[in-house]
From TrEMBL:
Alphabetized UniProt keyword annotations: Chaperone, Mitochondrion
The protein's name: Succinate dehydrogenase assembly factor 2, mitoch ondrial
One of the protein's GO biological processes: mitochondrial respiratory chain complex II assembly
Any one Gene Ontology cellular component term annotated for this protein: mitochondrial matrix
Length: 102
């Protein structure tokens, strides 16, 4: 019902056009040193888990990693690193963690 009411309005103070918005890509993540030890990786991931874009993810990921981070294998740490630093939008990540986004 509401979608029929909505109409396209001009972007008054925007420097970008609609076409350039459609081509938006998520920036690539920073390179991690290849010689990073597991201890350093765990410390980095703990910090990155706690310091998120939204407080909710910081609490969820920080508590998870504080509890289970020391028990994760190198492969599991790599997968978790991809999850935490993969460039996913914060709210999408939050809803996925909570089981609300499939």
């Amino acid at each position: 019902m509401h979608s029929k009411i909505l109409r396209v309005v001009p972007r008054l103070f925007s420097l970008t056009s609609w076409k350039s918005c459609a081509q938006f890509t998520i920036p690539t993540r920073k390179a991690v040193p290849k010689d990073e030890t597991l201890e350093v990786k765990r410390a980095r991931l703990l910090y990155q888990s706690r310091k998120r874009g939204i407080l909710e993810n910081g609490i969820l990921l920080g508590n998870f990693f504080s509890t289970y981070g020391s028990k994760l294998t190198a492969d599991q740490l790599a997968t978790y690193d991809d999850l935490v630093n993969g460039g996913y939008p914060e709210w999408d990540l939050y809803y996925w963690i909570c089981g609300k986004l499939l």
